[in-house]
Amino acid sequence: MRHLRWSRHAGHRLLLGTTAAFWLACGGGAELTSPSTGVVEVTTRTTGAAPDPDGYTLTVDDGDARPIGTGATAVLTGLEPGPHEIGLAGLAPNCSVTGDNPRRVTVAAGERAEVGLAVLCPEAAPPTGGLSVTTVTGGAAPDPDGYGVTVDGDGARAIGANGNVVVSDLTPGDHLVGLAGIAANCTVAGDNPRTVAVVAGGVVALEFGIQCGAPPAATGTVAVTTATSGSGADTDGYAFAIGGGGQQPIGPSATVSVANVAAGATTVALSGVAASCSVSGQNPRQVTVPTDDTVDVSFAVACSADVGSLAVTIDGLPAGTSAAVKVSGPGGFRRTLAASDTLDGLTPGQYTVRAPGVSSGGVTYVSSPEKRTAAVTAGATATVAVTYAAPSGSSLNLWIAGLYLTQSVQTFDNAVPLVAGRDGFLRVFARADEANTAAPAIRVRLYEGDVLMETFTLPAPGGSVPTSREEGTLAASWNIPVSGSLIRPGLAFLADIDPANAIAEADEADNLFPLTGERRPVSVRGTPPLSIRLIPVRQSANQLQGDVTAGNQDQYLDFAQRLYPLPGYDADLHPVYTTTTTDPLQSDDANGAWNAVLGEIATLRVVENSDRHYYGVVRTGYTSGLVGRGFIEFPAAIGYDEPDDRDRITAHELGHTWGRLHAPCGNPEDRDPQFPNPGGSIGSYGFDVRALLLKPPETPDVMGYCGGPWISDYTYQGVMDFRGTALGRASDRRERPTLLVWGRIVNGRAVLEPAFRIVARPALPDRAGPYSIEGTASDGSRVFDLSFQPVEVADDAGGARHFVFAVPLDDAASERVESIRLTGPGVGSATVSRAPVPLRATPLEPVEVGKTAGGIALRWDAGAHPMVMVRDARTGAVLSFARGGSVLLPAGGAELDLVMSDGVRSLNARLPAPR
Fold first, then answer.
1. Residue 14: predicted pLDDT
2. Which residues contact 112 (CB under 8 A, 6 or more apart)?
3. Which pTM value belongs to this model?
4. Are 628 and 639 in contact (CB under 8 A)?
5. Are the CB atoms for 478 and 400 separated by under 8 Å?
6. Per-residue pLDDT tens for 190-199?
7. Separation CA 666–CA 680 (nearest Å)
């Protein structure tokens, strides 16, 4: 895979194609040109108790603007192909668009795109107002610690002697505002407290003027405390005065300190006590104020039940439906009732009961009249009855437009086969023929043949049923995760909307899906998990080693499993493999190192008798360029270990091994000429079942070079079909003496690697081809001859092709082979022969073994043995196809088996564990 390294936060690179359509005019025979513009159909859907009364403004690309209703459809014509921004403006303050606003939509010439804009308009909060309180203090000795502002007897808000405080979120109407904590040498001009009318949406200014004379020579502080008990308490508090001076407000249960009170005997009086309340003890109280100290004065106030009750009964709503009856009355009383209730402890006075409409099951129930009043008197219970009723008829109709079960990607008609045993996600799409507030449930029944396995009842995702298909948001479909245990061959489903018939409809006969009432079968295929071996590759040329361990191997494979039609994966870790290619991996593979390493990884698989995918993990040492390479239709590949990108590269290269060419995104080579979607996009909606994330159709396909990919249904089904056929190929499973023959053709040059005698399962060409490889004896007779088609490498400018065979030959036949020759079209020939140096009686003598700080060093005569296969004696794992007479292996305690090739024949030797 050749491209610049990318950031997963980068934007997609999409090339949008245009489909040309030619129409033949009837009678004229003239050929008309294809349309050059596209159309966008915009539908608005509004839910909530307080919709915008004057509708919205539809905007296009911040330029064109036109009105559109709260539940309407507008058709925009003549739009140039490409991306456009569609949005809504002019929304009421209580309304908001669900999702992006504006919304990006891609227009194709001659095609129609649909955009659904859902608007939520909940009931606006009651309007409020505010107060701006200012103090202006004059005189010889202003109060040093300022004052406190009280509203309706609540806790005081600190304000300076010359200061300002803003009190917000006050209900419109009269409020009692006072100044507390005034020193005894200060007096307030005018009433304190005083009544102020607060207006909705405004801030009323209120100023207190305070004059402070010189305090007496000897002063103290009086701390006044109130404690109120009983029902019917005086909610707006009281007032007190010291020594017959000015009044100050104090709450029902509060403490206010007054400084600069003349030392000596004085009185404290509490006033403003409601008739239903009484003060215990003397009032006023005689106190003695100490010099430079504080005297505490407490008033206990007991309030009797001079209150009344209001019983509100509510009926006429369907069972389980909550009302929203609002009760308001004296002293700012407010309460919302969901069901019948009796409100006790109410201050006598006039109360208002308002019953707005209630929506349930697509029907809006109303009470007439909407507003009632009731007079509450002390010791009595007033009653109000609220009765709701439904309208007499309904024009609403509901139906199910479609449903699908997805495991990674799915078309609306459920055409993508499912994998047995893998978790999925069910989406059901309901439609209505008009704007509504219906919220029906949908029932889905899953069958295996004729046996009912599971029944799901899906609640509505919102407060209305869409009037158009909105596949691009999960909030517009009825959804539920489905366990893989339910996804098995023979799966079928049947669904119905409003199964309890709780919603009145104009047509109740079309609520089933399918409409025929016959169960809809779903294609489910059994497929094995991905079996793969991850191989950390160490380069002798620069000592860089790919970072893959048991602890991070899932980081390579998790993304692939979520994308591809796999029920899971079975991964193991190979010991470190050391490649001794002369040059390190290069960003453009000018030295052929990528191809050499890829060929070695493929050969490991044959030598180790494995049916697993083999995936080599490398570290590149550069920041831009080639980062992965894989065979087409052969289970071996290599890729880099960059943490932010290793998952994508692994998934991409695996796709090549399953026969996938490139999607046209990011300018790759080897493009798939059959790829159906413009710009290499996935074309249908994808879904990450584990993360519950929707993938829009413009998301790039994993087989392209663009960032942030997912998988198209085309790639998904192609991989599923390939695995379904490739996994069934028969092969000889018996291990026997074979001759390992391997090599490659790159840039028109044939490379034939040294052969090895090994015990392995035979691996022979699965079909004849234009290339041949033959082994001949010293007398020119033919020992073996194979005709084959080499395996192609994806994205290789040099047209690289590889082969690796384990040719079954007994010992006698192997001994006869003197040379091996590769021939084919356009490459001439390549030959390997026995090295001219005679083989020695024991292979131990020419191999030098040493333990170094970097590992285990082996040296030998490369003239006699151009390549040595190094294996773990216990497991048989190949640790290196070592070239050039030396190799440095990672430190380890295993015995080593050496298979030393002279080009055609080989000798075996075992080295004890290095010490």
1. 26
2. 38, 39, 40, 41
3. 0.61
4. yes
5. no
6. 888 898 988 8
7. 9
